[in-house]
Amino acid sequence: MLRHEGRSACLDPTPGRLKKIADQAITKQAITKDEGIPMEVLDHNTQPLEKWRDGVMTLMRASATVQSKQLCIFDQFCDPGLGAPMHIHAVEEVLEVYEGTAEIYLRNESMIVTANQSVLIPAGARHGFKNVGTGILRVRATLAAAIFEASYDNSNELSRRYVPQDA
Q1: 142: which residues sit within 8 A by CB, 6+ positions away?
Q2: How many domains is the chain built from?
Q3: CB contact set of 28 (below 8 Å; sequence gap of 6+)
Q4: What pLDDT does 2 receive?
Q5: Is 17 helix (H, G, I), strand (E, B) or coil?
Q6: Are 74 and 57 in contact (CB under 8 A)?
Q7: Within this chain, do residues 27 and 58 fall inside the same structural domain, yes or no?
Q8: Parallel/antiparallel/unpaired status of strands 109-114 and 151-152
């Protein structure tokens, strides 16, 4: 029995009927979350590179600054021997190496990661990475939050936060 708007209704337990009900619920949920934001093409060729630290440039691809609601995606270009110091985020992160060779640290482990390989970083896990190759390392970070926030082991490290200007 299914209670709906104060009434009882019998469900046809056949898989096709249940799938149809589930599909309708998912569609309704997607429609109610859609805030009518028009489709927009983000031209990353026009987005500026930002120096995050010596030898590390960052291209913020998507975040709350461009109306993203649940993701922060950015590329980092790191000179040999440089990268991201140990830090944590409150959300999951995927680090994907696009070019070069990285040593990625997760808690007390480290692994060598090369082009077309990724590491899933759990929420709250200490991690960092550095370029162990001879050329530029290109890493894409995807975080499960539109606002980038990090807490660094090194208190001298500049914390960054990307939020919309009108927030």
Answers
A1: 71, 72, 73, 93, 94, 96
A2: 2
A3: none
A4: 39
A5: helix
A6: no
A7: no
A8: unpaired
> In this structure, how many other beta carbons lie within 10 angstroms of the beta carbon of residue 144?
14
Residues 64/167, Cβ–Cβ less than 8 Å: yes
Domain coverage including residue 16: 2-33
Shared domain check, 145 and 63? yes
- CA dist., res. 91 & res. 131, Å (int): 24
Strands 137-143, 93-99: pairing is antiparallel
22 phi and psi angles, rounded to 5 deg: -65, -45
Q: Which amino acid is at 43?
A: D
Tell whether the model's pLDDT for residue 65 goes beyond 90: no
E-strand ranges in the chain read 2-4, 7-9, 50-53, 56-62, 72-78, 83-88, 93-99, 101-106, 109-114, 117-121, 127-131, 137-143, 151-152
Residue 39: inside a domain:
no
Question: pLDDT tens, 37-59?
Answer: 678 888 888 888 989 889 999 99
Residues 81 and 29 in one domain: no
Average pLDDT, rounded, for the chain: 81
